Amino acid sequence: MNVNESITEVLKAEGVEYLVGFPSNPLFDTGIAEDAGIRTIITRQERTALHMADGIGRVSSGENIAAFACQHGPGTENSVGGVAQAYTESAPLVAIPAGYDQADTDVDPRFNSFLTYQPVSKTCEQLTDPDAVDDTMRRAFNTARNGRPRPSVVEVPKDVFDMDVDDFDYTPTSTDRSGPDPEGVEEVADVLLAAENPILYAGQGVHYAKAWDPLKELAETLEVPVATSLNGKSAFPEDHPLSIGAGSKSEPSQLHHFLQECDVIFGVGCSFTDTAYGISVPEDKTVIHSTLDAGDIDKDVASEYSLVGDAKLTLDAVNDAVESRVDGPRGRREDVVQEIQSVREEWLEEWRPKLTSDETPINPYRVVHEFDKTLDKEESIVTHDAGNARDFMAPFFEVTEPLSYVGWGKTTQLGYGLGLMMGAKLIRPEKTCVHIMGDGAIGMTGMDFETAAREDIPIMEVVLNNFEMASYDTEFSGHYADLAESLGGYGERIEDPDEISDAIERGVQKTEEGTPVLLEFLTAKETDKSIF
């Protein structure tokens, strides 16, 4: 058995279903992975493949780890952005880029993944000893699976792939969880019950821990509002009376209102990273920070109380402690719900003219509103792209099911959402997977719509075409519906706002028939955002 064969054995043992990337890498070129029953998918560019692996990991709550492979040199150079995006969004995957032959690895100007990828990966190793395949790959999968999910990288020099491996016997990794300090839990329960106006703030860690039920239980016991981060959007149903929406650059008024009015913020499964695409915690609030990554504690936001551990174990423990201290309803719910509804209705009334506008070119808020009304929320997974698409979607597209919205934004790479939804569709083929983007995003990754057609991945791409890139004074041109048709999918250009809903229904039907869809809406150059 050689290194190439032994790596394939590892992938099979670790339950890897998809190897995505770009030739030339022996894992693709020899056909060994495909022969082993792993589906191999070649994309038009390396970054999209990494985004697919990222989507698989996130939509499966980290249960399915995808592998990525690519060529040495230019392939690894093209891949850095995709690894970096997965790192900032805390997405698990294992990347296995080829490297130059060992004799050339450190010779200038050859690109060295082992050195270059370290700042944007959880672990990064170079495999040079063929008898170290099992230990090296086990470390990669263990670190991707456990603790804070992030990409692991193993660079394999080209000449190492063909080297023989002696006595290969691989044992797959396990997934382990850790719980919070019991004394800290008791203290947090006391603080929450003593607070006059607490709120809960749920991050992506709630998704990875599948802690949706205990989050809802705690909110209903305490009778308090619940917000989410953009990455955590859909961790709490937004049609729930206690929901105040997701924090982002553009966000609902009720979230801003309660963030200002609260005295205690309990953030669970979140990093509280200081970013333009999340909440800004006011200085006069008492912060309780629960996270899996101890390095996040006091990183950007100082916290008076902290709990380090898995979000589900933490919420279960806090629920037990809270329930042991309360006896029946607390009598707060009706007032809290009425306040949420009052602020929300006033905000929606302000935005309703744009959400229901009959103007042409179509107002992009009307497109978002029609998607919100038309899509079956229980059967859909949706994401935005960077820039305006994110700012239009985040406050006004209401989600009700866990993992039905893949939120992101820390590095905001244009075109990221296309790969995310291809990954989502692979792991959840029964769902309608929708990605809403603008002119800039389709210019970055649009050719990978052909990958969706070639690989039978029937996603729905939505282009808000205002012939301009966001607020930048840069004009574009293109007929993207025609492009989709030329690449093997279904394309439709919509100019009449009264046709939006019907076009969405036709698009859903086409995806159910197995055809990837691109709906192109000619939209106005909208600049207003729900920013406070």
From TrEMBL:
PROSITE patterns, A to Z: TPP_ENZYMES (PS00187)
Domain of life: Archaea
A Pfam family it matches: TPP_enzyme_C
Segments forming domain Thiamine pyrophosphate enzyme central: 185-317
Cleavable signal peptide: none
CDD domains, per the entry: TPP_PYR_POX_like
GO terms for MF: acetolactate synthase activity; flavin adenine dinucleotide binding; magnesium ion binding; thiamine pyrophosphate binding
Any single biological process term in GO: sulfur compound biosynthetic process
InterPro entries recorded: DHS-like_NAD/FAD-binding_dom (IPR029035), THDP-binding (IPR029061), Thiamin_PyroP_enz_cen_dom (IPR012000), Thiamin_PyroP_enz_TPP-bd_dom (IPR012001), TPP-bd_CS (IPR000399), TPP_enz (IPR045229), TPP_enzyme_TPP-bd (IPR011766)
Any single Gene Ontology cellular-component annotation: acetolactate synthase complex
Segments forming domain Thiamine pyrophosphate enzyme N-terminal TPP-binding: 1-106
UniProt cofactor(s): thiamine diphosphate
Domain Thiamine pyrophosphate enzyme TPP-binding, first and last residues per copy: 385-520
Keywords assigned: Thiamine pyrophosphate
Family: Belongs to the TPP enzyme family.
Protein's name according to its UniProt entry: Thiamine pyrophosphate-requiring protein
